[in-house]
Write a structure and sequence with these properties.
single chain, 266 residues, alpha/beta, TIM Barrel, 6-stranded parallel β-sheet, 5-stranded mixed β-sheet, 11 helices, globular
């Protein structure tokens, strides 16, 4: 028996709580995958109603995404804490389950705001860092979760800008694949293969409303189908389950943490 079997993990996450999240949920169920849905109470776009969020929580993990889908980096600490804690309390009351994970709307936050997330009661945050197959890192007492690929047709320059923010060798190693890729689905397959080879984590994320606008449903299903084909060699987990492996969390020095995780510097 291969001692590394099932050490690799695959996860998904879906932001903004749009009613089309149920279409994503149906595809995940079809391919025996799981994931985390980050849901605000209200937003500039349509969001699921209370009964829909409760129904989704019976099968999938629900994470915080502020009360009103606001960019945390524009708020004072007091205002940010209201959005952070309020979102967790609202979801816990609605779903009856602990809300352990949070995702910053638009991926925007300041490095100094990470302790506020912990103060609000969360154990982990998911960022919009791309091209990563690494384990989560522990920063300021939080599990900081990167992603591998977004279900969106990014340009090569967008991947380059995302990688440049991290100053990470691992990201620049993955960057040529992103630049030379024939599309995000081809890049997803390449990064999935790398994750399996290195017993890492493959993390697909996206917005259901954006998938609809871009006409990407067929591509999303194709990638989920491919992910499902690797289930014998990996374990499908929620974002919250990623930090159920404390021995695999990596502590970072503050200077490195700032470059790797904060979308906006302090």
């Amino acid at each position: 028996m291969n001692p590394l079997k099932n050490n690799c993990r695959i996860t998904t996450s879906w932001d903004d709580g749009h009613p089309l999240d149920f279409r994503v949920a149906e595809l995940l169920t079809k391919y025996k995958l799981t994931g985390t849905f980050y849901v605000p109470r209200s937003s500039q776009k349509p969001v699921m109603n209370r009964s829909q969020v409760h129904e989704l929580s019976k099968t999938f993990e629900i994470g915080g995404h502020t009360l009103e889908h606001v960019a945390i980096d524009t708020l004072s600490d007091v205002e940010a804490l209201v959005q952070l804690a309020g979102s967790r309390e609202w979801l816990e009351q609605l779903t009856g389950s602990p809300c352990r994970v949070f995702c910053f709307p638009s991926g925007k936050f300041r490095r100094r705001q990470l302790p506020l997330v912990r103060q609000a009661g969360y154990k982990a945050v998911r960022t919009v860092e791309l091209l990563s197959t690494a384990n989560p890192q522990r920063i300021d007492g939080l599990c900081v979760i990167p992603t591998t690929i977004q279900a969106f047709p990014h340009s090569a320059s967008a991947y380059a800008r995302n990688a440049a923010k991290r100053f990470s060798i691992a990201h620049f190693i993955s960057l040529p694949a992103a630049i030379q890729s024939k599309g995000w689905t081809f890049l997803a397959e390449e990064m999935l293969r790398r994750a399996m080879e290195n017993c890492g984590i493959f993390h697909l994320w996206g917005h259901s409303w954006e998938i609809e606008e871009q006409g990407e449903w067929e591509n999303v299903e194709a990638v989920l189908r491919t992910m499902s084909s690797f289930r014998e060699r990996s374990k499908s987990v929620t974002n919250g389950e990623l930090f159920g492996h404390p021995s695999q969390l990596i502590s970072q020095e503050p200077a490195t943490a700032r470059a790797a995780c904060a979308e906006r510097p302090t």
